[in-house]
Amino acid sequence: MRKAFLSIAAIGFLLSSSLTFAQQSTPDPCKSGHELATTDCSLTWHGITLYGAYDAGLGWVSHGLPENGYNYEGASLVNRNGYQHRFLVAPNNLSQTGVGIRGKEEFLPGWAVVFNASSGINPQSGLLANASETDIINNGLPRASYSYAIDGARAGQPFNDEIYGGISSEQFGTLTFGRQRALGTDAMLLYDPAGGSYAFSYIGYNGTMAGGGDTENSRWDDAVKYRLTYGPVHFGAMYKFADGSGGCYSAAAALGNPWAATNCTPEYAHNSAYGFNLGGNYQKLSADFVAQHYNQAISVLNPLLGPESQATGQSFQSTTDSIDTTTITGANLINPANTVYGIVTDNYGLMFAAKYTWDPVKFFVGYEYIWQNNPHNPLGVGASDQGGYFMSGVEDNNLDNEKLVNIWWMGAKYTYHKKTDFTFSWYQQRQNDFRSPPTCSVADGFRSSCAGTLNEGSLYADYHFTKRWDGFAGIAYSWVSGGLAIAIPHKPGVPYNYDNNCAPTVGTRFAF
User: Fold this and answer.
1) What's the CA gap between 432 and 430, in Å, rounded?
2) Which of 44, 212, 286, 382 has the highest Cβ tally under 10 A?
3) pLDDT, tens digit (0-9, with 9 covering 90-100), for 77-124
4) For residues 250 and 321, is the Cβ–Cβ distance under 8 A?
5) In 71-87, which positions are buried (b, 16+ CB within 10 angstroms) versus exposed (e)?
6) How far apart are CA 53 and CA 58, in angstroms?
7) Which CATH superfamily hosts domain 2-511?
8) Before 29, cis peptide (omega within 30)?
9) What residue segments make up the domains of the chain, in order of their start?
10) How many H-runs (helices) and E-runs (strands) does the chain carry?
């Protein structure tokens, strides 16, 4: 809680002292509270614009878990540990609750210094959005006592959405540096019929597509991003510098000597990435192509997926050095308290998405092909993860063979009398058999490395009382089959408690 208050204080300081970047034209400044409530005027003062949203509601799930204050994604998607129907507070349904600043300060004709900073806050608790903490608070608990545990790019950072600055030119484009949304995330928000909604969109809730393989990679730290628009065509490029510790390995063990925590030495920095985007508009059609590559991507696993030593009162740390695979002896390499456990892969992703407007209907379609391999440069115990967390358990050899993932989606949005939107969406994710040997059956010990499918369909209505305030109601239904319905990698016989979830939700949102 103290960390959350300090982080919010930092947000407040930056809100009062920084210039920011408006990616789109800023509406006229608000002149009164009535104008703020009823129009789309902006909270702008001397070029600084304050913006944000509050989104909360009430939901019911057919197979859910107790909620916790760090979970920002709600409970709409089928969950491996869900076990009972329940009513719950539904946070961040159509958009993430949060606050930010943006602006633009011209220093030469056609040239400006730009800046943006924003963070997500959970409306049900007031805590900063923190996926890593949802896993940590469940560590050591029996499965029947879990609350929601997720993975995501928001890990309690003071600015868990974006914080970047740079230079913008009307002719030469915009160059920025800092924590920024990946190019796949930008495309997802444009071409998802549900607009990245946590309550009604699989690709918004899960983030695998936006991150090019892992949801943590939907935002990149220490990244350079370039955007250029020329007529109807736009281009983007992005590069992420390596910014983390790779953990520790033992040079003595490499020579055949026993490995111990006492002779561990630091390894290289990790997590470099790059991506490209090309798109354009033609009359009522718009389309984008995105390619992304991420080295040493981390997928944090919920507590059930950790090592057997994760039982109550025992160490959470891996018992094998993940780099040279020799047995760890002696005391824990790092204190396992407040650490995470995860799978490491090298990821590639190619995505194509399109949108066509035929008033009053908009049609959406998209597809992404992702391939993942065990990392060329593996991570060790003590490697750093996002948000200042460290890994006390690492799986660098989780994939028997190359893992192939296909994700596609489609949908339509119908606008009725300008104030009501009806949105239907369909999403599907498929994976191949990456098990060796590739035999997959219940008798053979069906595993998560076998081929499997996840589906989600949703339908919701969104009524705009004013340009800032809307109310919504809808339903999402999702289910899994095959390898995607098994809970533990490389271990047979631990399926989802239930392979489906039905989640109706009602709520309201106020954006400023």
Assistant:
1) 7
2) 212
3) 999 899 999 999 999 999 999 999 999 999 999 999 999 999 999 999
4) yes
5) bbbbbbbbbbbbeeebe
6) 17
7) Porin (2.40.160.10)
8) no
9) 2-511
10) 6, 23
